[in-house]
Amino acid sequence: MTIALETRSLTKQFGGLTAVDSVDLVIQEGSIFSVIGPNGAGKTTFYNCITGFYEPESGEVLFYDKSLVGLTPDQVTYRGISRTYQNIRLFANMSAIENILVGEHSRLRANWADAILHTPRMKKEEKAAVEKARQLLNFVGLVGLGDQLARNLPYGAQRRLEIARALASQPRLLLLDEPTAGMNPHESVDMMHFIRRLRDELGITILLIEHDMRVVMGISEQIAVLDYGAKIAEGTPAEIQGNPRVIEAYLGSGAASGLNNTAARPA
Amino acid sequence: MPSAKAPARRVSTYKIVQTVLGILFAGYLLWRLYVVFIGNPAYGSDTWARFIISGVILGSVYALIAIGYTLVYGILRMINFAHGDIMMIGAFGGYFVFEALKAIPAPTLTDPKFTFSDAHPIIAVLLAFIVGSSIAALSGFFLEKIAYRPLRGAPRLVPLISAIGASIFLENAGQLLFGTQRRDYANPLILTRGDGWNLPIGGATVILPYTGVLTLVVSILLMVGLYLLVMRTRLGRSMRAVAENKQVAALMGIDVDGIISRTFIISGALAGAAGVMWGIHLGLVYYYVGFLPGIKAFTAAVLGGIGSVPGAMLGGLFLGLVESLGPAILGISFQLKDVIAFAILVLVLIFRPTGIVGEVLTEEKV
Amino acid sequence: MRKQIKLSLNAGITFGIITIFLFLVGFTSTVADILAELFHNKAATSLLGLTPQMLNMLIFLGLVGLWAGAFGSRKEKSRSDDPWGVAVLDSLITGLVHGLLVCGLVLLVGTLDLRGVRMNVYLAQVLPAAVKLFLLGKAPLAGGLFYIVFMLATGFLGGLFSRGIGRGSWRRRSAAAWKNTWESFNRLSFVTQVRGNPITRYVIYGLLLLLVFLVPLGAGQYWNYTIGTVGIYVLLGLGLNIVVGLAGLLDLGYVAFFAIGAYTMALLTAPAPHHLLWSFWIVLPVGVVLAAITGLLLGTPVLRMRGDYLAIVTLGFGEIIRILSKSDDLTAFTGGPKGVTAVGGPTLFGKPFNSAIDYVYLIFLAVLLVIFVTNRLQNSRVGRAWEAMREDETVSRAMGINTLTQKLLAFAIGAAFAGLGGAIFASRNQFTGPDDFSLMVSINVVAVVIVGGMGNIPGVIAGALVLKGLPEVLRQLQDYRVLVFGALLVAMMLWRPAGIIPSSRRKMESNKDTGVTETPKEGREG
Q1: Looking at the partner chain, which of C21, C123, C316 has a beta carbon nearest the beta carbon of B295?
Q2: Of the candidates B162, B165, B349, which has its C-beta nearest C305's C-beta?
Q3: One CATH from 3.40.50.2300, 3.30.300.20, 3.40.50.2000, 3.40.50.300 for A1-80+171-267
């Protein structure tokens, strides 16, 4: 199997604080991989190191065996990594379809001269781009809402639009940051199915940050747990659920020892 | 961590160009320094002393204004574009106090033209500072309340444009109210501009002006006072808390809007005092008087690392010195001294946007 | 109740200060003159012992009083009932406070004037004639009392207008009525057809263009000059619109590029100081390209900074250019403080351009070209990238946009437009000098863009017409123009940050001319 993304002792520091502490991860192509951890565990910083917003102090990020360290965010996107945000960050005053077209930016070639002269190449490309944007709208189930301003869309539709925008750059790896935040259980289940569809139908590797344990346990094939920037556990959902260090990180040391005791008693 | 190897850094062409330009510029500067001081000295030590004296005095005024920029920036992360115009308002406040006190006759036997402000210069100067600062502080308060407060949380460009609008408004209101002519500050007799102690330097006498010493002393006092206020009082603590994080400060029971108001009052008062000093030391006051000092003080604030109070003081002093020494060192005409200030601003922002002291960049959480 | 009274007290104080300010800046006299010109009643007839000028001023102050009353009695959201009594009380309180403040001013100014104090030494606009006008020729006490009564009465009326008549605010109802009319207008089949059909749209554009091209024929030399100036501001506005409106970069030194265009034209075509005498048509593109290159050179370091630093650095750059062009050291190269005279003009088919009308057409052509280019850019990959950057720079980077390149592009294209404007400007005036490129030009252009509506072309044109054209029509307002700019910028940011004409979005999802039609359906599968 091919390795989509690999980090080798990735470290990011802010002043004295080590936000990401020599994290090693290996994500197989075509898998759904979750990164979990308590608030402030460094998950979002980890994302920012991968996507080029932060330059790590040390360590490597390899995407299909090529280093991403030192690339700018747009170059990272061009290589095939795309992301969504925890608090939805759409281009609020642009229409839904324009949002998706912006997402296609890195796959389009038309420059300013093409735009002014309306060269045939540009016209063809633009037509195809709009067509693709419509297909994406269709794929995420937003047909008919394409000309609405992004800020006027309902919450769930905004989440989907954000994913459609991320898909528009034809990513091989999609980073989702809490895609079910603010959703009710029913909507969360919908989103889980949708994420699986992304992988199964489009073949995109998915890296997920999520707080909702039902979602994490429901769809992940592999889970890594971060605490204070360091990876404290990695494994399948079943392995993680039983891991005392994970429970300790989430609930505090007392709870973990208590839990260990209750677990020990029947045995 | 012995296993962690440093990632291969990519060096951008821009960085290379930047470094090359930096080295070239530094080389040019060194060469000029050599020419001016050793190779072909154009000025004697008395002239340099004069440059330094005027630079330090000017610098202390810039520093006071720069503190206002820095305080507001620290808390609101916005450039208070109208700050220079607040200084103008303060300068006019002082001007009117002196005019009023000059109008009260207090004749003595030796001089029948003696007036109240000549007879009681301390009271007159104190009154000018109090009135100038208060009016400026009040303007700062209303400026924030009207033009900035409703825009809290708006995109960054919006309050900035509002600030520019406020600045234009204040300047032109000043022009319409007080006319376009430059007005001479009616200093008390003791503080006549140009009078001072004569210092023998390098075989010539250099005048250390009384007005300049007054300016320097007052600004140092105000800066010490401000430092104590920020570091030692409850208000200062709240200000620092709000600058750090508004939400958390609000949760801790700090009245954020109130603190912001007070910040504007304090920075306005400092700018007002600077305006009065400007009037006393340099004399001329008119509606546009705040523009250049405002921009230059902003440069000073950036130079020192915007958001940092000690940085603003250092930056102000540095800028004052550079402005008065620069033309002589670089061998260009004194007409171009304003270009030096602007060029420094551009250079600092290009080479070291965090300034001398360095702003801690925590606000952008991607 | 307490809060309501405080609200109307505040309104009274605010309007009192406004009225006093208007008097101190001499606006009360100016407005009287303007109204006199409008009504043609300069004659020395008098009514109730008041000259027409005084009556004119009172009309204006009456309007201010009405507004104060209406403002003071505006309804708090939580209070929906008893409009009558409260409204009357509120408007009376506002009017009284307003009147008292003005009365205080009248007493002070009037007494000082009687004592022979020449206040205009300190307050430039408080001339004896202005004081006499403001006091309506009466003694201070009588004048003061009159203003109390006057402001009470107008405030009361204003309160009646805003709340007293009927239940609910008339303002809200009239706003609703306007909206209804507008919507039913939009629903008319004729209107939708015109809007939807590209051919009728082009016909309308064509007619508008024809009208625009006919106007200069009927206008004289002076008006054509003014139209040309407005046109140049449209050019500058459209250029800055790309930088500020589309890409979201606040450039306060935009005048620098204008200056580079103008100086290029001047130095290459004028007999002095270089005696190059190039042809206008060659220099025009040279100026545009030079301005664009300067934009790139300045932009490369500067655009890496955060937005608010950019504003100050560009401002500094604009000043550097101006100071350098003014400096004696460079007189041999730039013509120094006196500027460059006898700048060359274009010749077309052997006919030299020598009247304002020729230049008006040239400027029109330039504006059309710029509109065309802007429009094409806006609706392309590049334009979308700019707008995305303005909306959220961080996310746009994550979407694969190289923000630095895009910013540079916006900066360079904006600069190119300014260079074009500058070159034509210098040629038309046959002169260019440092004083043409003060900071005020940059500020004017920023105001044109922001007032009109950031990011849209009709907005910029409207902004240029309002801000540069209107003051030409009302010459007396010239002195207040910049003051109003400042106030307008603040007011726009407070109430309408999107500008007079906010930009509208292109419909793309079901665009017929791309050949794909999809029936909108409710689609929400997981």
Answers
A1: C316
A2: B349
A3: 3.40.50.300
